[in-house]
């Protein structure tokens, strides 16, 4: 197959996939808004709950990691004197590094941002409520003056 033929096939495939994506992005409703399904409602409590679930997953992952490391230490002890013992030690080090990375990602990349978003949403809702309450007070004062 020549380069031009292969390129033509790749372009055709990308075009088909793009058309599919475009269909998925629309609702074929003639330019109307979203469908009649459920609407996404994000609340501070929902964000905090999701952060808590992330903490649970992180804790469960830590427990599984602890159990795995206990077992692999037994394997490492059985490999003493073999050339593969050094490779297994490297495997253990990399495993620990990756687990620390994943734990950090769950905490710093998921749970903390969710909590931060919950706090910001709570603060924004409070600020907007104050503005709305202030407008109501102004309307009440104007009504009393009439």
Automatic annotation (TrEMBL):
Residue ranges under compositional bias (Basic and acidic residues)? 15-24, 47-65
Q: So which domain of life are we looking at?
A: Bacteria
Q: Which GO terms describe its biological process?
A: protein secretion
Q: Where is this region: Disordered?
A: 15-65
Under the heading InterPro entries, the entry gives: EspC
Amino acid composition bias (Gly residues), ranges on this chain: 27-38
Name of protein? Uncharacterized protein
Q: Which organism is it from?
A: Streptomyces carminius
